[in-house]
Amino acid sequence: MPVTSRYLRLTLYTVLILVGAVVAGGWAMQQAKHHALEESARRGPEQLSLYANSLHTLIERYRALPAVLAQDPELIAALAGHVTPEVQAQLNRKLERINGAAQSSTLELLDSTGLAVAASNWNTSNSYVGHNYGFRPYFSQTRSQGTGRFYAVGVTSGIPGYFLSSAVHDGGGRFLGAIVVKLEFPELEREWSQGSDTLLVSDARDIVFIANQPGWRYRHLRPLNDSDRDNITVTRQYDKQPLTLMPTRTLRVFDDNSFLTQVDGPDGPTDYLWGSLPLKAEGWTLHLLRKPPTASEDGRNAALAAVGLWLTLVFLGLFLFQRWRIGRMRQRNREELEQLVEARTRDLRTAQDGLVQSAKLAALGQMSAALAHEINQPLTAQRMQLATLRLLLDHGRIEDAYKALTPLEHMLTRMAALTGHLKTYARQSPSGLRERLDLASVVDQALQLVEPRLKEEGVELHTRLVRPAWVRGDAIRLEQVMINLLRNALDAMHDTPRKQLEICIEADQQLWHLTVSDSGGGISDEHLGKVFDPFFTTKPVGDGLGLGLAVSYAIVHELGGRLTACNHADGALFTLTLPIAQDA
Ligand code: ADP
Questions:
Q1: Hey, where are the domains in the chain?
Q2: Which pLDDT score, from 0 to 100, does residue 522 have?
Q3: Which of 10, 260, 303, 570 could be 251's S-S partner, Cβ–Cβ 3.0 to 4.6 Å?
Q4: Domains 65-183 and 435-579 agree in fold
Q5: Cα 565 to middle of ligand 1, angstroms
Q6: What contacts 146, CB < 8 A, 6 or more positions away?
Q7: How high is the pLDDT of residue 552?
Q8: How does residue 519 score in pLDDT terms, banded at 50, 70 and 90?
Q9: Rounded Cα gap, residues 169 and 187, in angstroms
Q10: Does domain 435-579 have CATH number 3.20.20.70?
């Protein structure tokens, strides 16, 4: 693979791993945030109910006040009769006193038309006395149901508050008027504003009227329809206060009363964990708005853990992949090697068969020349002997003629042996032929073929052969091996004065050892390792092909034997080892 593409791949992998780490980290952080958000949202209702309780307690404290005052005989009597200025002054002071003791905002007494006949704030500039509040819903509620309640901005004072009222009846149950207590919530708002959370109370129309943060009061959380607006105008609930929409967008819903909401508030768009709790008794809803938890230590830890896990997985994956790849590569190498070995073995076998054949033919050529020489001589001798024989017969010397036949017969036998051997020599023997044969007789045959040379060159021959030495193999091929060894020995001793050739066959447990040693000076160290190589020869061009030992080696190996060369005292020693053949 080219270096640049490898570099590119490496870069790509690195980038992928890093992107994976960032994604994993980001995802884990997101999950942690998600979790923290849900956790925080779950805590909402508890806090909400605490706040709701404090509001509820405050209202309950004052609810009894108008109910008790409605029983007051003095008030009943006043409403039943004509309210003179003296009575009014008396009532005003009474209400002022009770209001001070009860710590409510104001107390007022309305007659059956809704006209304030007395009020605790009679001597302030905002005095209710003389104003008619018959248009307020709490008044009509009180007349019809006996009690009333209504949150509104005071039309006289401009101060918002919660009006709780009870009907005043005479002994006959006739509606005389109403006694009204007003609560204001600045104390509560102050108390609530201490925390960082935003607390809101909205009415049935989702108009916020209590808020512990500036900018929220008199904002409606959903758009108002025409009937809403008409009703607000008639009841003058929020009097002159302008009502504006607070745009909100729900981002997530945790449950019916818990959301993640974006508010386009006074400080720009802000996300809030928004919890709501309906206050059934008043028909209001309490809202708790909290800032969602920001990226915390937990989030960072989760991200780090995820990155760590991701990297671990990546490196584990890489490690396993690498191992798998190495395994596969090894497997492939092994297979390739096996295939190569097979192919080479096939090639070698083919080459070897060819070599055996050509070496045989070469040997045949050499042998033919030798034979021609060998046969010519006896032929001439025989022709002369025949002439002698004819003469002897002509002269009737039968006795002598018989005697003269014996050397003729000898010569013919020898010639027949030579040619008989030749006949089989050039034949390609089927490979794998395994006849049971005597190694000693193979030696005999070979010696017979080289006998003329042995004699001519005056070679001293010693043989020590175990007979019979049974082996399994191909007689012709083994003979070829023997002839090669003998001829090499004779070649080596050609120029040495002392020519000694020794052939032995010995056995150990399972093997025959056939040794051929000569006194030809041996093989030099540098050549010793090469003598079995094909075409290795030290003989002059034309004399040696360098195939003899290579072919012999191959033949012996094919028969399950071994052929080795070494040096001894003054010559070379070749050892042929073959397994001993068991019984036929
Ligand atoms: P060739 O006889 O055609 O050279 P061989 O394969 O039979 O081929 O022999 C290879 C070489 O081994 C010979 O050339 C010779 O150098 C060496 N060699 C073989 N036998 C002997 C021996 N008995 N003594 C010394 N050298 C030998």
A1: 65-183, 372-426, 435-579
A2: 95
A3: 260
A4: no
A5: 10
A6: 166, 167
A7: 86
A8: very high
A9: 34
A10: no
